[in-house]
Amino acid sequence: MAQKIIKALLRNLFAWIISIIALVPLLLILFNSLKTSLKASDMNLSLPDFPLQLSNYTVVIEQGKLLQSFINSSIYTVGSVFLCCIFSSLAAYVLSRNRTRLTKLIYLFIVLGITMPVNYVALVKVMIFLNLNDTRLGIILLYAAMQIPFSVFLIYGFIAKIPVELDEAGIIDGCSPIRLFITIVFPLLKPAVATVVVLTFLNNWNEFISPLYFLSSSTKWPMTLSVYNFFGMYYRDWNMVCADIVMTSIPVILIYLLGQKYIVSGMTAGAVKG
Amino acid sequence: MNKKKVYPIYFVFGALIIYIVLFVIPSLIGIGYSFTDWSAYSDKLKFVGLDNFKTVFSSDEDYMAIIINTLEFTFITTILKNVLGLVLALLLTKSIKFLNFHRGIMFMPSVLSTLIIGMIFQSILNPATGLLNTFLRSVGLGVFAGKWLVTSELAFGSVMAVDIWRGTGYIMTILIAGILSISTTYYEAASIDGANGIQKFRFITFPLLLPTLATTTVLNIIYGLKVFDMIYALTNGGPGKTTTEVLYTAVFKKFGTGQYAVGTALSSVMFLFMVVIGVFMIKIMTKDEVVE
Q1: How far does chain A reach from its first CA to its final CA, in angstroms?
Q2: What residue ranges define each of the domains in chain A, with the CATH number in brackets?
Q3: pLDDT tens digit string along A231-258?
Q4: B78 pLDDT exceeds 70?
Q5: Is residue B110 assigned to a domain?
Q6: Which of A61, A134, B43, B209 is 20 to 30 A distant from A156 in Cα terms?
Q7: pTM of the entire predicted model
């Protein structure tokens, strides 16, 4: 009996140690974002003194042009998530419902994109050819392209669980294919689409490589790129850098807290066969 | 019901066109360009055969070291993330207080931008003022305080450790779902037969978890071969010439210096490598769906 209690205690202790290791770097950033530049130069874990230096945040918003990059990130993320959801669910729907040799091949061809690396150097050539280099539309389309393979995979698996009888009933009632999809099938896809929204939001908000290659004008930079640039200029003022990091991370942390169950279900799709 | 009419193929076009134009075509023309002398300095392209690949695989250049670095990074982080992730998953499927809190916190590093994590750890691993060395000195372990990111002996290990800190929670989460999907009847039967905890793991959990472990392994491999943000923010390939240089950072440097042909040749080597892994992975991921 005593042995059991000790075991349970050790287990709990171990869990706390790991959680603290996961949490400390994040707390470090939060604490130091509220200190003066001098106090933050040590980057230690002491709690910030009162009054909290909330002015760090206002300074960063002005100096780091955070509002502009926040708007940029939002445009890129929302735009690409929207495109990705529409196109992926349309494609997955038809590929899943009408299984011929051709559609199976198309499905595998798209899903292969999950592992493919992007050839950024050659992509520049394509982007210039399409007049998409250094444009917002280009980034949106690119983000969508990178997320389509996994989204199609996820929704395709989900559609198989929706009974075909619903489609048949709709057809008998005289639905056109588009209306059938919009009024009957798409509403039923909500859980899968929610997962796609959350995962593509996180990935696209955090995306750093494509803007690095394809956005030369700083007015179009998303938050990741501007936080990195800010870090280069203000590396002595860790309080400012921390404030910038906190603000760049708030959206993803919010989405994570709100959409936790969708993240887990999306990540484990394909990984776990129940 | 006429399937062709009800499920028109043009529904697929939107996704397919974006994917082909911005994803597949660059990879294919990239292979084409890697046989030329494409660079920022001349407008005319000349066919140079396998020259770029000879450069990439020649022993006089650093590219082999870069490829080996990438493979080493992938291999070591994959193994350690899987092992640690499995340990944590086993722990967090037992009765523990605040279970969901622990699961949520441990997963958190995976949702943050890897670039930002790189920046945070640049501070934590600072030899003089960083949190890690300060902590080690304060508990009397000052002898272990190292020059983490700045010496060639420690830099690569430090980068990998940061990546393991970042990615283990993700693997753990997938493995937790895998463990929870194992039917409890197996464990009940084993208990009746008098199996202990280790035997239950050895004969039930582990074998039934193997497919999930295969997927996490493949996911880690894909991530590892493509790693960029983290290394770019932590060391950008340094210290020295190639200590922590990996494929994607090398490609970006070639892009920056205008040596496009070598950059695209490196990408193409990676592309062919990943197609093989990709086909293998799709077999795992779609085995229930496509084979009917």
Answers
A1: 35
A2: 1-63+234-263 (no CATH), 71-213 (1.10.3720.10)
A3: 888 877 888 889 889 999 999 999 988 8
A4: yes
A5: yes
A6: B209
A7: 0.87
